[in-house]
Design brief:
single chain; mainly alpha; 4 helices
Length: 105
């Protein structure tokens, strides 16, 4: 069954929106945890695993689920994983740039 042009556009808009949401959540969570570590002194933020690895794991899962909106990524799971890792890498650098610029290293 062939999709209409409007369905393809809606699917790509849904993909863009979900990727933007995952990006914003990753950057926001990373910033919040780093701020809790540097400024507030939260005990939970003393662990590097919580501050850096937890947001990365959640972002990889979020991007993987978001990319499954397109049927092409469902048919090519390796490409889905690689794209998720690349998107996580880019959002991690944005998260670190925002956090380190605001609060230092």
């Amino acid at each position: 069954m062939k999709e209409t042009q409007q369905a393809v556009i809606i699917r790509f808009l849904m993909l863009a929106l979900t990727v933007a949401i995952v990006f914003a959540l990753h950057v926001g969570l990373g910033f919040l945890l780093y701020r809790g570590r540097v400024i507030s002194g939260w005990m939970i933020s003393e662990s590097d695993l919580v501050v850096f690895i937890l947001p990365i794991i959640l972002a990889v899962i979020g991007y993987f689920v978001a990319l499954r909106i397109l049927p092409w990524f469902i048919a090519h799971p390796i490409l889905n994983v690689m794209t998720s890792l690349l998107a996580t890498f880019l959002s991690l650098w944005c998260c670190l740039a925002v956090s380190f610029t605001k609060y230092g290293t």
